[in-house]
Amino acid sequence: MKTKITDLFEIEYPIVQGGMIWVASHPLVAAVSEAGGLGLLGSGSMYPEQLREEIRKTRELTRKPFGVNIPLLRADAEKLMEVALEEKVRIVFTSAGNPGRFTSFLKSHGVTVAHVVPSVKFAKKAEAAGVDTVVAEGTEAGGHNGFEEITTLCLVPQVADTVSVPVIAAGGIGDARGVAAAMALGADGVQMGTRFALTRESAAHPNYKGKGIEAGEGDTLLFARKIGPIRAYKNAFALRIWQAEFAGKSPEEIRGLVGERRAKLGIHEGDTEEGDLEMGQIAGLVKELKPVGEVMEEIISGLGRVTARLNRVMNEIKN
Fold it and tell me: Which domain holds residue 243?
């Protein structure tokens, strides 16, 4: 399966695994890359030396391309990048910050750079900064979202119509139908987070995975809109923040209620009531915990069936 994204990253399939905190460590990353996609280490929950160790452990498991996701809001983002460069990582995804800050620096060292954007405005800024590709992430996605709250269906075609670099669609994609839909919207590849978080190789706590498998269509919640929208499983913590916002609490009060290390408490330590269980709406589609290889195989084989169905529909319309 050949697209601009497979050519850019030298991978078999245009499927990227999101670099999720407390989830995307070497077993998951290597499994995705071995299956023909692009695995990304989630450095947002790592110290620089932990990242170095994870890069080396990933290389022990695969010789195929993989990358690192670095949130630019991290105070030590530059140190994380230095580690990635020292370890000769050739693909870096940046997010949650200004791409103009490090893109030129990374590209001067031969790194292929992608940046995650929530809107056309920021896609244009990322392209102007010199990135090789943008990830257009809709509000269906788990974790931190853009203030614009634009859905993937609306965001991807607008970004694809605006920028000249390849577009990776993200948010609400978890099976062959989602991949095909993203391509129809103008994307050259997809990024999937929650679908890979709910696999056997994921580093997430079993309690987190259990809630993800149990989740139905309305079991995630977008909250903390005043300080930066977060989509997570609808538990006591998330509902408390949502209710405080509804009651008119100030951004400072909301920030105090959110506190620190909630994602670690939920995703890594497994507190399903007081932890931040970041996951996307696509969790409602996942009913079984499977290995990465099986998930990838189902998606790729499923694309044939989706394409055949679309061809039948188009023929019926023409006739």
Answer: 216-282
- Do residues 240 and 92 share a domain? no
Q: Are residues 98 and 57 in the same domain?
A: yes
- pLDDT for 54 equals 98
pTM: 0.95
Same domain, residue pair 142 and 271: no
- How many domains does the chain contain in total? 2
- Bridge-based pairing state of the strands 143-144 and 230-233: antiparallel
97, with CB counted inside 10 A (0-12, 13-18, 19+), is: middle
* Average confidence (pLDDT) per 10 residues, the chain, 319 residues: 95 97 97 98 95 98 98 92 96 93 94 97 97 98 93 98 98 97 97 98 98 96 94 97 94 90 95 97 96 97 91 84
